[in-house]
Design a protein that fits this description.
single chain; alpha/beta; Rossmann fold; 7-stranded parallel sheet
Length: about 350
């Protein structure tokens, strides 16, 4: 894809992970997992940017190693007024955003997800830093087939304001030529440690774990399409540990434009929740409930990321099988109440 505009193509910098690395949303699910992975790779010259507010996500930062923490609003002011405030930044991972699909304050979403990303992208590119930002699979709207990172962005129709705010920046990057110099990662259904602060946006694994602990059962929506049995609705679920491995590869491979981050294989809700019962050592009990009518016309019955661009760029790491990922999450994090800790290999720790 050839794009023209204010920015032209740029050769990838081999020094992307040298010098300070900036991670916005660094206390969140994907951001803290990315810092965990960088720490495990021996990198701790990291500037963490976030808004902690009254949440408990500060706990995710406690085991991690980083050189500086800056509030998200203060950070933008700092780099706007002092372009080289943090020196020769190697890479900027912009993972911070309002990720609530039910947020109704459109002005807030535009400022936080669109305008902030624009300002940060221009700063990073002008500085010569590698810029990788979180787009979202939600930008695909109601599509169930052809969720390709090569699709014409102008054909997409997001279904909520969160997705639209993300989509607008994707369009802006393409229109201005920024897309030739930066990477926008479209995350599919990410789950894993350090998501406890996300409220209604927490994964089904997190919610089901607590439902089973409290009631002995999991509640799933009934299916309203004959080709999908109850619990047979499918999603592209990806463990956060795999998602950040892919994100780091995108940064260090020089892959630009839109990149899907998913497994490429859809799994059913039943395949997702059954390993939770096994990990907890309790009998399987699944109840199917009515879906609210307001959701029925918008509900996607199958999503699957096409991952050819990622694989063709040289990503060859095997993915964590879904059952193994759920078991790891439940046994080593949810049950003992642990956060991601780069100093401990929880796969060798008894729950």
């Amino acid at each position: 894809m050839s794009l023209t505009g204010e920015y032209g193509p740029v050769a990838f910098m081999e020094t992307a992970l040298q010098g300070p690395v900036v991670v916005t949303g660094g206390a969140g699910l994907i951001g803290s997992a990315l810092i965990w992975l960088l720490n495990r790779r021996g990198i701790d010259d990291i500037v963490v940017v976030d808004r902690l507010d009254e949440s408990e996500k500060w706990k995710h930062l406690v085991p991690l190693r980083f050189s500086e923490y800056v509030d998200a609003d203060d950070f933008l002011d700092l780099v706007t007024e002092h372009r080289n405030y943090f020196g020769e930044v190697g890479a900027v991972f912009h993972l911070g955003a309002c990720s609530s699909t039910t947020e109704r304050n459109a002005d807030y979403l535009m400022r936080n997800n669109y305008e902030y990303t624009k300002a940060l992208a221009h700063w990073a590119v002008d500085l010569g830093s590698r810029f990788v930002y979180a787009s979202s699979a939600a930008t695909y709207g109601s599509l169930e087939d052809g969720l390709s990172d090569t699709i014409d962005l102008r054909a997409l129709r997001p279904l909520n304001m969160y997705a639209y705010s993300k989509h607008l920046f994707d369009l802006y990057a393409q229109r201005t030529g920024l897309a030739e110099r930066i990477a926008g990662v479209k995350y599919f259904n990410v789950f894993g440690p350090n998501e406890d602060h996300k409220g209604d946006m927490r994964s089904i694994v997190f919610k089901a774990f607590h439902q089973i602990r409290e009631t002995g059962a999991v509640r799933l929506f009934k299916s309203y399409r004959s080709e999908y049995p109850d619990g047979g609705q499918q999603r592209d679920f990806i463990y956060v540990k795999d998602a950040v491995e892919m994100t780091l590869h995108v940064a260090t491979s020089g892959l630009n434009g839109i990149v899907n981050v998913g497994t490429g294989t859809p799994h059913t809700w039943l395949e997702l929740v059954r390993p939770i019962f096994t990990a907890l050592g309790v009998a399987e009990r699944i109840e199917f409930i009515e879906m609210p009518e307001m959701l029925r016309d918008k509900y996607q019955y199958c999503t699957r990321a096409t991952t050819e661009r990622l694989r063709e760029s040289g990503y060859t790491r095997p993915l964590t099988p879904l059952a193994d990922a759920v078991t790891d999450y439940v046994s080593h994090y949810l049950l003992p109440g642990r956060e991601l800790d780069p100093a401990v290999d929880y796969s060798t720790v008894s729950a």
